[in-house]
Amino acid sequence: MSPQNAEMTGEPFPLVLGLDTFGDVTHDADDRPLSHAQTIRDLVEQGVLADQVGVDYFGIGEHHTDDFPLSAADVVLSAIAARTSRIHVGSAVTVLSSDDPVRVFQRFSTLDAISSGRAEVILGRGSSIDSFPLFGYDLADYEELFEEKTNLFAELLKGSPVTWQGKTRPSLYDQDVVPHTESGPFPVWIGVGGSPESVMRAARYGFSLMLAIIGGPPARFAPFSDLFHQALERFEQPLRPVGVHAPGHVASTDQEAVEAFWPRYLDVISHVSKTRGFAVPTRESFQHEIGPDGALYVGSPETVAQKIAANLPTLGATRFDLKYGMGGLSQAELMTNIELYGTQVIPRVRELLA
């Protein structure tokens, strides 16, 4: 059951345990990067396996780089949707600021049709800004673009016909936007990495809140959940769920997980630190991040389950999406991660939170 439908029926929000990926290029057994095409084909198989082992949600984040070639995530999600029957599929995130809201709505309403109502979308401003120069947007308009396009997206969700005026795209006058969704609007979340303004925006438009926690103590995000609930009340919006997106890796033992994840994590963060200002991790800082007060979920199924179960109540959250696949692991490692997460982590978290 989707969070929105649960809210409408008066039921409590369900516990949702999902997986997210940025489509990191997969490597072969000799640690050589595979082609973008093979990476995408591998990703479809990962999504199919996630459905088979009981994962609730499978999300793909939009990126436009050689390391993350998932520039058309919704196309890949459609391939997964056509081969699955129960798992929800969506973005993690869609960079709405550099896209057209009408096209985003059309693509995800199409995905909703293909999946028989299992589509969701997480909208973001774009912490990774590669799409801005690619599509001719000025970073100086970063805030205005996201605010205005979120406003239009909210109007589109209400259904056709749509009348809207703004400065970032041509106006719409009594416009029918197709395809129409079959069972009402699909679930929409706003991804937030630390901006109170984005929390308020999610509440104002009645969207759910996804906290992207990629470093530091997860507990520091608890005030954002509190702000979100206060803002929903202020804007006279119904209650909406809060979710958490965080990186990690599951292997049979803690040692196996750390040995597989650490060198990839170091490479990825060192690379993106050049453009995004991240501190280059040390082994000491990494050990802290995988500990109980850090943001990374790396370890055996029991270790990861215990950490998820400890943090969700602290954050007032009922959803957790593990961002797996850091920095080009092999397909075998990724599939093992997914199988362990679905067959061992998810049942254990449900048991701990029962």
Describe the structure.
It is built from 12 helices and 12 strands. It is of the alpha/beta class and about 350 residues long. The chain has one domain (about 5-354): Luciferase-like domain (TIM Barrel, Alpha-Beta Barrel). The strands form 2 sheets. Strands 1-2-3-5-8-9-10-12 form an 8-stranded parallel beta barrel, surrounded by 8 helices. A two-stranded antiparallel ribbon has the order 6-7. Helix 7 links the parallel strand 8 (about 190) and strand 9 (about 210). Helix 2 crosses helix 3 (about 75-80), helix 4 (about 100-115) crosses helix 6 and helix 7 (about 195-205) packs parallel to helix 8 (about 220-235).
Features:
single chain; 354 residues; alpha/beta; TIM Barrel; eight-stranded parallel beta barrel; two-stranded antiparallel ribbon; 16% strand; disordered N terminus
